[in-house]
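dude i think i finally got it to work??
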Amino acid sequence: MQNIKPATAPQVNDFHILYLHGFLSSPQSSKARQTRVMCEQLGLAGQLLIPSMYQGPQQTILQLEQLISSVPKHRLGVIGSSLGGFYATWLAEKYDIPAVLINPAVRPDELLDTYLGEHRNYYSDHMHLVTRKHLSELRGLYRPCIRHSENFLVLLQKGDQVLDYQQAVSRFGRTRCIIHDGGDHSYQNYAAELPNIIAFLQSRIESSER
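look at this
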């Protein structure tokens, strides 16, 4: 399938993790909660950031940049799911930080073209408005070339009913991807992947400090 296996056991260390949820999701999603539980078990609860992202793309990027301005970026790793994976890619490339992407959106401007209008958040009564301006902002945030491919670990499930996993393979390269048969867009068995996810982030952070 592919050859990335960050199998070292995670160790408690002074590094921060930023978890970015997907479109219409929230910090109360299953993956966000599972990430929180794992970080609590590792003694990293105080170093986990899970923001609510309810604004348009440009405002979301400003929100995220302001959020991470208070932490040492050389000690920061990002986990991004779906649309959160798109934002995680932008941050990882700009700041040269590691990122693990879960069924990431590669060209959300094309996907959300069919979502123009209002949509209710899956976890709250918040209404998300998708406009043509938002699609333009997403196009502006797309980075045609990945400069720091070594910073990425991409987890994909072929059964994703929302996104074509092959787009992510083409963008990041098969050697950066772990591809599973079956599954779905929410990414089944995410909790079982968390030790390797955190170990990968930590290994990249430690590698950059050498």
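The chain has seven helices and eight strands.
im so relieved honestly
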